[in-house]
Amino acid sequence: MRHRPSNRLHQLENDPNRAPRRYPLWVDARDTPADIEAKRERAIAAGLASADDQFVLVRWKRKDES
Fold it and tell me: Is residue 32 scored above 80 in pLDDT?
């Protein structure tokens, strides 16, 4: 007997037709590559994004920066 997934999340994760989404990461000039990677990993761990999503870096400056 084949095991059938019981929850919707599992079905979505294993759906071969699911296209990667775009996920924005807000970063500023002081963020290092390690900081950006940590933000990416936190978004995945929180369930906001998937590992196969495309992450778009949105750069911004603080008021005190030129």
Answer: yes
In order of 20, 21, 44, 56, the CA distances from 36 in angstroms are 19, 18, 13, 11
Give the H/E segment covering residue 9: helix 8-13
Amino acid sitting at position 24: P
Looking at this protein, which amino acid is placed at residue 43? A
Q: Hey, is 7 helix, strand or coil?
A: coil
Written as six digits, the tokens of 40 are 């990416």
Q: Are 24 and 58 in contact (CB under 8 A)?
A: yes
pLDDT digits (tens, 9 = 90+) for 39-65: 999 999 998 988 889 999 998 877 777
Q: Are 52 and 19 in contact (CB under 8 A)?
A: no
CA distance from start to end of the chain = 64
